[in-house]
Specification:
This protein is an alpha/beta fold and 304 residues long. It is built from ten helices and 13 strands. The protein has two domains: 174 residues, Rossmann fold (3-Layer(aba) Sandwich), CATH 3.40.50; 84 residues, Rossmann fold. Helix content is 34%, strand content 22%.
Length: 304
Amino acid sequence: MKQLVTFWVEGYFYNPSPFQKLLSLLLYPLSLLYCFIAWLRYLSSTPKDYGIAVVSVGNLTVGGSGKTPLVSALCAHFNKPAIVLRGYGRASQGLIVVRDEHGIACDVSQSGDEAMLYAHNLPHAVVIVSEKRDVAIEMAQSFGCEVVFLDDGYGKHSIEKLDLVIGVQTPNSFCLPSGPYRERLWSGKKVVMVDENRSFFRHVRVENSTQKMVLVTAIARPQRLDPYLPMVMDKIYFEDHHFYNKPELEAILKQTGAESLLVTQKDFVKIAPFNLPISLLALDLELSRELIETVREYVNAKKD
């Protein structure tokens, strides 16, 4: 049931049917109220300087936009970065240091899939999950980090930061609940818009490919993968942040006759312990020189 609701909502926001378009219009008064409250929240916030460069990578809409690979690519340009995120889908609460200089300190159920992906791919980074981003920033500063990257931090208006906002295309331009927008680009708030094929470029490859692969993924708006997919036997979608169990994956292999599960890097950190045949849809981002320099200049200015 949860899966059906998730996919219905994604369609409503990004590829609405005639009925969903009508529903969106009927809910428009609530969207105006929501947007007004979000605007008041922005106006009432005073950005606080935490004494360390903070760079937010976010988007204005709900759902996936590629924040995780962008943060990973940016971290590669710094010696000791920290990544702070809420840790959606984790079976824990409070602040948890997922990775520090001593290594990975918890399992994926405690960290959430995105945080564990960072921890595996960025051994030089400190990774912290926390509902309270300000506390996590102070923790990162105590580790001697030079920059904190906030995953999904546009709406944290009480934090002084450089805001990188990933552009997301959608035919529905309304705020919640009529549309996917959590916030607007508020007047007076400076942001750097980040667009694919201008600010960054995707490079996708398949590792450990087999002749018969079935795509299994639990990311928001999984149809985003279609342009990068090789030939697959089937596509099995789960709701975003779904935690797999081994029997359900074994059943997929048996039912489809596939030789391996084709998964994203975000899925891989949850599936790897099951010792099943896996093909990996690996993604790397190439950043524009302009974007790298913008971030580097901001971080250096905070050090002075």
